Amino acid sequence: MHFYRRALSYFRDDLPLIIISLVLIGLATLATLLQPFLLAIFLSLFIHKPSQMLVYRLFHKLVAAMGMGQEHIVGQIMTLAALAVILRVLQEALAMAQRLINAYIGYNGLMRVRCDLFRKLQQLSLGYHKSQPQGDAIYRLSYDTGGFQTILTVLINGVVVSGITLICMTWLMLQMNWQLTVLTLAVAPLLLWTTKLFAAPLKKRWLEAKEVDSELTTVIQRSIASIGLVQAFGREADEFARFHMTAQSSVRAYLRQAWQDSWYWLLVGSIFGLGYAVIFGYGGWLVYQGTAGLAAYDLIVFLAYVNQVYGPLQAISGSGASIQGGVAGVQRVFEVLDRDPVIGDAPDAIHLPRQPRILALRNVSFEYRAGEPVLRDIDLEIRPGQMVAFVGSSGVGKTTLLSLLPRFYDPTQGQLLLDGTDIRKVKVKDLRAHVALVLQDSVILPATVAENIGYGRPHASRAQIRRAAELAGADGFIEKLPEGYETPISENGANLSGGQRQRISIARALLTEAPLIVLDEPTSALDPQHEALITQTLANLKRHRTIILVSHRISTVAGCDQILVMDEGRIVERGTHEELLARRGVYYSMARHQLKLEEPTAAT
Questions:
Q1: Taking the model in full, what pTM does it have?
Q2: What pLDDT is stored for residue 55 in this prediction?
């Protein structure tokens, strides 16, 4: 029950509307219940069998008020016809109002669920997002969240509405013949058994279908995102084959669910058919015997009520099956909502105003998987205004080290300190306000150039945006674009070159005025001219910002105050460009290859 209470809690803010909806349900149910009485009253006009039931008495009072006696049969029939129209229109109007209110309630709850899930996805660490396909998150946000609406709809329409109708109908039928009423309700235990029998298999089939459907969404997302690569290498047929195979798996999963669902409804329908046959047979025998005071027209009216009872009874018993698809979706949403964000504010996290600070790493080690260290005992101190570089071959942990600075991950061992304060004790938002990150794969949004540069500082003026672009060497090419800074950029920056995307990313970082700028291969996509421009820009910022960069290019890091050479997750050399060259170690080997340094001639 906790599961359902938690799911329904998203609709708690609309409780007044839920109450109004329940009132409308009651009125619509009353209008529905009154309609079969019109048939009974019509038959009584010809049989002249009086009844003491309230509805009969009210009708006869209505006829008397209209000045029609028993002899005005046609007038009474017309009155019944008019009442039939009024009751049906009233029923439909109330049902329409209730549906509209339910839609309002349902979509409000859906919005709350999606906001919670989206917020949680933003809080989860990069480790989670790298381990999960993007298509899965899209599917959970777009489709699984609809399970909350399914649960609400089934509980209101399948349980509340049907429950009210069933109670009222049972009371009326007991007034007519209690033996037949007991027989009518005798199918309930069989229905409960059937629902219990099929609940677990149906839930399992729904979960399987949703998992495969999520995989299909992932295949679509990945294929569209890499369409350039697909076309460049002529892999359209392969991608279609992968899509077709996943789509077939989705169809098979839903067919298995439909097969299970069909067997359930076949069994339920058979139970109702058996119940109706027993009532028909026993009731017919009572009419034939004539000893129970049951006339043929009483049986006809009662059988009409049986159909009215079996409808809500079927809805109540079937709600267990109907709700399973929603339960599967809600369960998948809760799986994400219940995850530990890993990276978050500690209970005693402190506020740390943005300003230049000393960054220190004390014996920092890190591993993505237990027993497989990526960083080992990193120890260093970086003072405000310094420019520090990490160099080394690919896979030695340089980029991982940068990811620890804004707390995308926490170190497995050791500490990262800002002015002596462990960054895990600082509010995440304050920590990341200190760090401006430029990734190797520049993230470009489908927005204007100005909006991309100003993403980290949305209220920046145009002059500030232009100044950041100038510092990053981007102003020249931006001015040549069709609409300058207002030029729209395509998805993933498809209408820009790699170097242009990189310079926009650097301008974005510079605009934030974060005291610590972290750059991962900032010049990897630039030609020598623009590399020199970016290198000079970084050199000019060196006394105003703390700059940490990763680069394979010796020409980019040569002017750094401190260069740290990494190998197998450790710092194996450190010093200035000149000091490291003089040491003739790993750094010297890299520089000799890139800068074409000549070996000194041996003395003769």
A1: 0.73
A2: 58
